[in-house]
Amino acid sequence: MKTKNIIFLGLLAIMVTFTACEDFLLQAPELSQTTELTLSTYDGLQKATLGAYTPLYATSWYGRDFTVTADLKGGNAKISPQNSGRFRTEYLWNNTPTASHGLWTTAYNLISRANNVINVIDDGFEEVGVDQADLDALSAECKFLRAVAHFDLARLFCQPYSAGSTSPGVPVILVSEIGKPSRDDLATVYDQIISDLEAAEAGLPEASSNAGTDATGWATKYAAQAMLARVYLYMEDWTNAAAYATTVITDFPGRLYTAAEYTTWDLAGVWGTDAGVEVIMEVYGAEGNSSHGNWDVISYIMHPDGYGDVGASDDVRDLYELADVRLNLFVNTADFPNDYWTLKYPGKSPDGNLREDNIVMIRLAEMYLIRAEAAIELGAAGDGDADLNMIRSNRGATDLTDATLADVMDERTRELCFEGHKLFDLARTQTSLVRVDYDGAVNQDISFPDYRWAMPIPQAELDANENMVQNAGYSSEN
What we know:
40% of the residues lie in helices and 4% in strands. The protein is mainly α and 478 residues long. The protein has two domains: 1-60 and 102-204, Serine Threonine Protein Phosphatase 5, Tetratricopeptide repeat (Alpha Horseshoe); 211-449, Alpha Horseshoe (Serine Threonine Protein Phosphatase 5, Tetratricopeptide repeat). It starts with 11 loop residues before the first helix and ends in a 14-residue tail after the last helix.
């Protein structure tokens, strides 16, 4: 594949320095260094790899906006009565090139950091006392992160793969240099994502060497396999989606939350600790991370004790049976007894600090949902029943029989709401958005197809790069 160069919207300094490459571990760097100096030792490569995780926690990505946008535009969430005006553009589906999404810059920031490590190792880096296996593991870790970045960019800024793999994708960047790349088609983007995840699967350990209370905050072989299952689902490659989901279900050492655990995991403060046996990978959040959003973190925007701008719609709450424990993960307040918020971001214990949370990227329940959907698509509906009921029996819900694809989609909404899936589930299944609990002035329902299923390329990128082509339907705002 031809590699490309990219311009990073005013972040070129990030491409040539690592001023806080250790901030994921909350360790202050001693001084700023050039990329060449930082990456001249194995220790530097390790620190640069840790630094590549940092953008995941940015406000524009899993730290808030990416997750919130998917549920708000997808109909799970709505603007709450105590809102301050945040996210109304997304709620109304009124994004424009000058009011698009900040993921573009943040994701390419991560890609740049990952590329720096990958390229040095691929160029034959050697150091006395360092085994090639250790270097390969670092490269695999960075390839996993690069795949996640390209995948999330494609999900947000492109029409779904299922609607046509030759449609415009995003630039695939494998070498970080100053340049003006054009867009690859979606098939090329997804091919690179699969290639990187397969390399990650081959090179990553089953458990990260960065073990501890935040052990699920690091890429592992299981995380790569789970992400492959998800990507193949988006490609409608049902056989591979089911195969990878089965691998994770069989080999991953965790298990599904029980009904009792599902509503008490927050006592540990974060997904992934104590009762967090179901989490395969999460974004570890802490105030010391340089990408921390201060008061603009996901907990504050989702929780009524914070800003609480983003509430839960009745459309999602009405899907639950009364005995389903997942219904208990919604809360109202004395001031707004008829409005609800999700409790999936409670802030960290012991003091419930709403300025910190871990954000789940992928967990075991999703593997059962993927396999159920693939089974129905492949004509083995009975297997789909079994996987859906495995989840439902652990949530206090009654069993399903003869489950349909609509049942799978409803179960995905019940289980994965407010974890950043709904918009993309609608898009990949080419399903129109229908909102009943909606108080916007326009765009209550959005049909499929529609140009707005792809967010506009940010105007700043278009201004900086004459080779960048805007998504159809959006006018330039020069």
